[in-house]
Amino acid sequence: MDAAQCWEFLRGHELGRLAYHLADEVHIVPVNYAVHHEPATDRRSLLFRTAEGSKLLGVVMNADVAFEVDEVVGEHATSVVLRGRARRLEEDEEHRSEDVPLHPWVDTEKWNVVEIEVSEISGRDLELSRPWTHLVQRDD
Amino acid sequence: MDAAQCWEFLRGHELGRLAYHLADEVHIVPVNYAVHHEPATDRRSLLFRTAEGSKLLGVVMNADVAFEVDEVVGEHATSVVLRGRARRLEEDEEHRSEDVPLHPWVDTEKWNVVEIEVSEISGRDLELSRPWTHLVQRDD
After folding, report:
1. Tens of pLDDT along B127-139?
2. Domain spans of chain A?
3. Best mutation site among B21, B98, B109, B139 for testing chain A: the one with the most A CBs within 10 Å?
4. Is A117 exposed, middle or buried (0-12, 13-18, 19+ CB in 10 A)?
5. Distance from the A85 Cα atom to the nearest Cα atom in chain B, whole angstroms
6. CATH topology of domain B3-135
């Protein structure tokens, strides 16, 4: 998959997994995201919201992150992985999240918008060979 | 979800995402895994295979990892996240991967078996509120 195909894939999905570090620990969390596209510059990034005070804001202190989105159809999985830097949008930038399909969500609490600026993106297919399907109960 | 429910969830799935660090970078990769259960000790761990020379073997040098498995049904997602330590099984332990539904896969190449010893496990539900479904084309 080339970068354009990867972005198209991302745009067609909404749930990804964010990997980040806090101190020396790696964490991973599912995230409901949207792709932001700035037509003027043709720049694309990911946006997601996180509640005020969330541990996820740790990404602001340690901006290096990785993100994964996948889709499984039968025994075939497609996975797009990206690496980049996360930063919290300033209040005067948060309007950008109004332009993407990220809207209401958790309107009852204060949230922050985090953007991931993508430095690397790649996609791959993997086959889930399932010779063990009939064995799945075996370790009971 | 309590720990038993989390393990049951893991046992019922086969594709997860491994987050690990290599040097100062966080990486994430989809992984086809299996749950290993040792009846004598009632200990559970995750096993996966990785090709000889794979970058994934970096987990051996930096054993701190996180792992995520999820399932989306309609607008409802269930996600199990764990943290733990990864290590490569020694040759005399690799037989353990014979006891789990991880069998053939890539029989043509030399592989290593990596085990994740789990230190924390938790599950959560998240609602994918989709007020924007009709907007998904909007950033074209």
Report:
1. 776 544 434 443 4
2. 3-135
3. B139
4. middle
5. 11
6. Pnp Oxidase; Chain A (2.30.110)
